[in-house]
Amino acid sequence: MSLDGVVDSLEASPKKWGNAEMNETIAAGVAQADAVLLGPRTYRMLAQFWQHQSDDLPMGRFLNHSAKYLVSSTITEDMLEWQPATLIKGKLIEEITKLKQQAGKNIQIPGSPRLVRSLIQNGLLDELRLNICPVVVGSGMRLFDEITNQVPLHLVDSKTYSNGVVGLTYRI
């Protein structure tokens, strides 16, 4: 994410700013999870790349073997080529509440800004991890656009990486 909150720009992407330090932090985060929650665009983007990667990379191992839950009203079951995957349609709040009550570790949401926004708006997100890239993009989709209620955040961790990216973890 850019300093001005833009999440859909290549100028603030992991591809441009990622490094070994950040990869270690991401690997530690995914080690605490056993499921992934995705929107349709992020599902397609990640599937296109990660399903063809080996288990040598922690993120590849995590994404390829974890349960994936796809929130979409446009994708159908037969379109879920990246398994294991479950389609969540319909009543988002009820379905996510049920999912959170299941036994297991944490649920990661890599990307999927519209989904993250909806979960924040409905009080369903417990933790928010942000990597703030040292760039102001100016225009584009912002993570917190359309959030209409105040959301108190409690900082639980921060880290400044050698590339200037600042990693922030908040409890909600």
Tell me what you see in this structure.
31% of the residues lie in helices and 22% in strands. It has a single domain, classed as Dihydrofolate Reductase, subunit A (3-Layer(aba) Sandwich). The protein has 6 helices and 7 strands; from the N terminus they run H-H-E-H-H-E-E-H-E-H-E-E-E. The strands form 2 sheets. The protein has a 4-stranded parallel β-sheet with strand order 3-2-1-4, with helices on both faces. A 3-stranded antiparallel β-sheet has the order 5-7-6, with no helix packed on it. It has 172 residues and is of the alpha/beta class. The two termini are 19 Å apart. The mean pLDDT is 92.
Helix and strand arrangement:
Blueprint: H1 14-17, H2 20-30, E1 33-38, H3 40-50, H4 58-65, E2 67-71, E3 85-88, H5 92-101, E4 106-108, H6 113-121, E5 127-132, E6 154-160, E7 166-171
Feature tags:
single chain; alpha/beta; Dihydrofolate Reductase, subunit A; 3-stranded antiparallel beta sheet; 6 helices; 7 strands
Q: How many domains, in number, for the residues?
A: 1
Strand order of the largest sheet: 3-2-1-4
Order of helices and strands: HHEHHEEHEHEEE
**SS elements, strand count:** 7
CA-based shape: globular
Short description:
The protein has 172 residues and is of the alpha/beta class.
